[in-house]
Amino acid sequence: MNTLIILAHGSRRQESNEEIEVLTRKVKAYSSDDYDRIEHAYLELAEPSLLQCIEKVISEGVSDITVFPYFLNSGNHVIRDIPTIIKTAAAKYPECRFDVSTFIGNHKDMPKLILDLAKLK
Description:
By secondary structure, the chain is of the alpha/beta class. The protein has four helices and four strands. Strands 2-1-3-4 form a four-stranded parallel β-sheet, with helices on both faces. The longest helix is centred in the N-terminal third of the chain and has 17 residues, at 14-30.
């Protein structure tokens, strides 16, 4: 089984965290058969944490995990924190395959998306 985990920063503001939950449901509805499961997790300030989410899906039989960093920039979370968590998880679960996709802000169509959204005043 394979899982996509949409990883956001997390917020003290519950409404912001709920936006990630809604996004996750929309991605599930939009998804084809690429992933058996699509989950969400947070780096801090909200739960489930990335490690909690990883442990949960592995306990339910997942053996292939892709983490999608829902971050705009390559800051410390993207460059340092996420790889450290994945390295820890990979050492704890060597039978599981882990991948981290590029962060959303690095997508080649981001300039076009910005211009399109700027028109929606």
